[in-house]
Amino acid sequence: xxxxxPYLCTYGGCLRPAKTYGIRSDWIQHExxxxxxxxxxxxxxxxxxxxxxxxFDDHMREKHSEFTxxxxxxxxxxxxxxxxxxxxxxxxxxxxxxxxRNGNRLR
Length: 107
Description:
Order of helices and strands: EEHEEHHE
Distance between the termini: 31 Å
Number of helices: 3
Radius of gyration: 19 Å
Mean pLDDT: 79
Strand content: 15-25%
Low-confidence stretches: none
Largest sheet: 3 strands, antiparallel
Strand order of the largest sheet: 4-3-5
Number of strands: 5
Oligomer: single chain
Helix content: 25-40%
């Protein structure tokens, strides 16, 4: 008989919803790595970060007309994609469904 693995991912749409975690820190790390880290696109010439590919594409079309063709834009977006330093904050507890007070993140 194996150890209990009481932790499950609490995000809807997880690609591994049945995966269980026996160690709390493994579960938390999964939620951070897979669900809370945001992608970003950085326009290096302008030093601007965009939180969506659409906003990045719009910026490139408006400010950098040499990247208006789709193949060029796709290639440049892939090069410019990075992990944002910002985490997506959850404002509610997935277990009790209560809202956070004063904007503190879950721990």
